[in-house]
């Protein structure tokens, strides 16, 4: 496996960073994950746009432009002969001093790695459980995908212990926010609903695509603040995230979830888009 | 500079971890920072105890016992000839798979690094400003010092932009919690007050020592929930943290802070303890 590290293509064994990298010391960085189909990272421009906004906020200066990263990612995919994969891009503040205050002079670290793609032939369906971890409802950091993700790791670990696949994250107001790895949608009557951003919710790329798809299909959408109990009245639940796309929820806190044919409709439209844009 | 990495003493240039280390990918780790005086890390046992509790919670199996780490730290200090320093211990879940769910099989990474000590001859006094970042009031992770510290980094960056040294963190209930790098104490009448743990507050080692010292000195202590406005009525403010010890606050949100002689008394008792235990 070849890894892209700071402008070079290196072996996996050589893909290392200093123990003084601020990403390792403090989770002082950002990342993006995207699906590679037919050699092309799906919606890479949108992912890198979010990363750029995050880098602005964190005051990390990316060493390469989005265009350069797109070129390097094509080379990475070619060298590894992995046209069907998951691409992760990581940008950290780079090696720096001990102590939280960031140093304006530090040289950022940029990494791109490829990972096995989920099997398309093996469509997933997840069980969802409510996490005991709460995310802040008003957090200036929530629009950005930082590498400080211990809460998501622990929420997933807790779900796994209960035999579930995914964790539902509630914000400190007691409202549904998102899941450990994506955004939540629910079907209510003929409406496709999701939570509004800005209450602890990451503005997911796949979330935005699903809102696009609904418009294309003439499905009504609704961004709503909702309490977790109210999800029980939904006619279907699904998670959107970049690695797996659209993942129907089969059970929620141990109870079976109704399945709406609208979820299938959105899912096929998404898969069509994935193939269409990969040409 | 020699670094301790996974049981070996390596050069700083060789002190590297995989880009697939979960610490680098997700802030999936823990750390401790302590003052080394006369070759001895101050209260290392208490720091490693907190790290052990954190490792239990995160289900990371430390590759060495606290006793072994104490022995290795003595060798590290000797090899670097740095009897007066700051020691950082980092424990992460080690190299692992992409995706939040932790793998029970992963082999943890353990690192110890030495850093320059603050100059004792140059006693610090900090200016404190209220952060715009809020920490969750009820967070099962707050008793542990994880490496997911982007909020602390950003709070410090925001403070630095305002020309201040330290950031006061308010919890999602609007109560005083802690500072970006330590715990907050205030003097009210003859009482030495601090926030109770368990409302987003890290149980600081130096905080516990100050409570010990107050008992020794016959000073009354009080663990109180307080709103930030009420801090203006205090007769003195100070931050406790492991690198700098006891740091008096000279100004809070631009206003000068009263200075209580009790802060000096506690500070000298702390410095005496630092020297006494280093023999």
Tell me the layout of helices and strands:
The structure is a homodimer of 279-residue chains.
Chain A: E1 2-5, E2 8-11, E3 16-18, H1 22-26, E4 29-37, E5 40-41, H2 44-58, H3 66-80, E6 85-92, E7 109-116, E8 126-135, H4 150-161, E9 166-171, E10 176-179, E11 183-188, E12 191-194, H5 205-217, E13 220-223, E14 237-241, E15 245-252, E16 255-256, H6 261-276
Parallel strand pairs in A: 8-9, 8-15, 12-13
Antiparallel strand pairs in A: 1-2, 1-7, 4-5, 4-6, 6-7, 9-10, 11-12, 11-14, 14-15, 15-16
Class based on secondary structure composition and strand pairing of chain A = alpha+beta
Instruction: Output the CATH class name of the largest domain in chain A.
Output: Alpha Beta
Which sheet architecture does the biggest sheet of chain A show?
Answer: 9 strands, mixed
What is the CATH topology descriptor of the largest domain in chain A?
D-amino Acid Aminotransferase, Chain A, domain 2
Q: Can you give the helix content of chain A as a percent range?
A: 25-40%
Question: What's the helix-strand series of chain A?
Answer: EEEHEEHHEEEHEEEEHEEEEH
Which geometry of chain A do the CA atoms define? Answer: globular
Largest interface: A-B, 62 and 62 residues
What low-confidence regions of chain A span 5 or more consecutive residues with pLDDT below 50?
A: none
Number of strands of chain A: 16
- How far the N terminus sits from the C terminus of chain A, by CA atoms, comes to 25 Å
CATH architecture classification of the largest domain in chain A: Alpha-Beta Barrel
Please work out how many helical segments of chain A DSSP would assign: 6
What percent of residues of chain A are in strands?
25-35%
CATH superfamily of the largest domain in chain A: D-amino Acid Aminotransferase, subunit A, domain 2
Q: Identify the quaternary structure here.
A: homodimer
Overall mean confidence score, pLDDT of chain A: 95
Radius of gyration of chain A: 19 Å
State the domain count of chain A. 2
């Amino acid at each position: 496996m070849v890894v892209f590290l700071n402008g070079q293509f290196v072996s996996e064994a050589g893909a290392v960073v200093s123990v003084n990298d601020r990403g390792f010391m403090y989770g002082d960085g950002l990342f993006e994950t995207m699906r590679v189909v037919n050699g092309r990272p799906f919606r890479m421009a949108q992912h890198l746009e979010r990363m750029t906004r995050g880098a602005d906020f964190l005051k990390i200066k990316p060493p390469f432009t989005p265009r350069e990263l797109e070129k390097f990612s094509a080379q990475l995919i070619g060298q590894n002969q992995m046209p069907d994969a998951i691409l992760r891009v990581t940008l950290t503040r780079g090696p720096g001093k001990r102590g939280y205050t960031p140093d304006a002079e530090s040289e950022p670290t940029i990494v791109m790695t490829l990972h096995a793609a989920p099997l398309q032939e093996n469509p997933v369906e997840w069980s969802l459980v409510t996490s005991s971890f709460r995310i802040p409802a008003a957090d200036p950091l929530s629009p950005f995908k930082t590498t400080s993700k211990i809460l998501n790791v622990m929420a997933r670990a807790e779900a796994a212990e209960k035999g579930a696949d995914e964790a539902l994250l509630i914000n400190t107001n007691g409202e549904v926010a998102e899941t450990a790895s994506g955004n939540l949608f629910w079907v209510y009557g003929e409406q496709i609903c999701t939570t509004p951003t800005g209450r602890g919710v990451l503005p997911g790329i796949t979330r935005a695509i699903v809102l696009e798809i609904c418009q294309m299909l003439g499905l009504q959408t609704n961004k709503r603040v909702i309490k977790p109990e109210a999800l029980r009245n939904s006619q279907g639940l699904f998670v959107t995230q970049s690695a797996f796309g659209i993942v129907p929820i089969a059970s929620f806190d141990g109870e079976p979830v109704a399945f709406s044919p609208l979820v299938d409709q959105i899912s096929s439209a998404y898969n069509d888009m994935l193939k269409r844009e990969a040409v």
